[in-house]
Design goal:
This protein is an alpha/beta fold and about 240 residues long. It contains eight helices and eight strands; from the N terminus they run αβαβαβαβαββαβαβα. The chain binds D-xylitol-5-phosphate and zinc ion.
Length: about 240
């Protein structure tokens, strides 16, 4: 049995939960979990204290890997009331965005590298009642997204080249975290890739308010609660 009645949880309530969460909000990336047991994984994350989850959608074109798409997410939505922080690593986000909105995604993130004129898509996402965000790969400068900050609810700074979990954190991107923080203090600043207890502190010290973590949560001992506590403590040391 699911621990809540997901159908009763509205998108508005899910987004409220994300907005109200005390930073840093740690969002487990489901990429490394056991997809054959997803309902159990979602329940285990809930019991461990997670408030939201990060979904990595890959098209084998924008990134050299494939993951899952809207029909799979729609099934997960039947099971859980977790806010879905949805990272579209796909070449044509505008073509598929309505599917992800219908599937129950809450925050929809797409990449500036494939949508150089992002305002119409950001507005379309917000008009549907979702939060909109842009992401940028490590080589992409902050100036690429700077003109659009008012149109966004969050920014996702990639600290690895997207496509795979378990890669090494690229500390140079912290400069972009600082820039985002300074440019619009109310913006949620998320960082994704190589976040673990050794890197979380620096990310938060630079201004990250949301940490995406895959392999640091789905580690061999299966103790998600301990993993979340360790990351939170490391992150708090960064903000102290
Ligand atoms: C990378 C994805 C990340 C990834 C994070 O392409 O966008 O969300 O799953 O995994 P870790 O935390 O293992 O780097
Ligand atoms: Zn991601």
């Amino acid at each position: 049995m699911a621990e809540e009645t997901p159908s009763a949880v509205t998108r508005e309530a899910r987004l409220h939960l994300m907005n109200a969460a005390e930073p840093p909000l740690i969002t487990p990336s489901l990429l490394n979990c056991d997809f054959a047991r997803m309902a159990e994984e979602l329940d285990a994350l809930k019991r461990a204290g997670a408030l939201a989850v990060h979904l990595d959608v890959m098209d084998g074109h924008f990134v050299p890997n494939l993951s899952y798409g809207a029909p799979v997410i729609a099934d997960w939505r039947k099971w859980t009331g977790f806010p879905f922080d949805t990272h579209l690593m796909i070449s044509e986000p505008a073509r598929y965005v309505d599917d992800f909105i219908r599937a129950g995604c809450d925050v929809i993130i797409f990449h500036i590298e494939v949508v150089p004129e992002p305002v119409p898509l950001l507005r379309r996402i917000r008009d549907a009642g979702c939060q909109a965000a842009l992401s940028l790969n490590p080589p992409t400068p902050f100036s690429a997204i700077e003109p659009y900050l008012e149109e966004m609810d969050a920014v996702l700074v990639m600290s690895v080249m997207p496509g795979f979990g378990g890669q090494k954190f690229e500390a140079e991107v912290l400069e972009k975290v600082r820039a985002a923080r300074a440019a619009r203090p109310g913006l949620r600043v998320s960082i994704d890739g190589g976040i673990n207890p050794s890197t979380a502190g620096a990310a938060v010290a630079a201004g990250a308010t949301q940490l995406v973590a895959g392999s640091a949560i789905f580690r061999n001992d299966g103790n998600y609660a301990a993993a979340l506590v360790e990351l939170t403590q490391a992150a708090r040391r960064g903000s102290a």
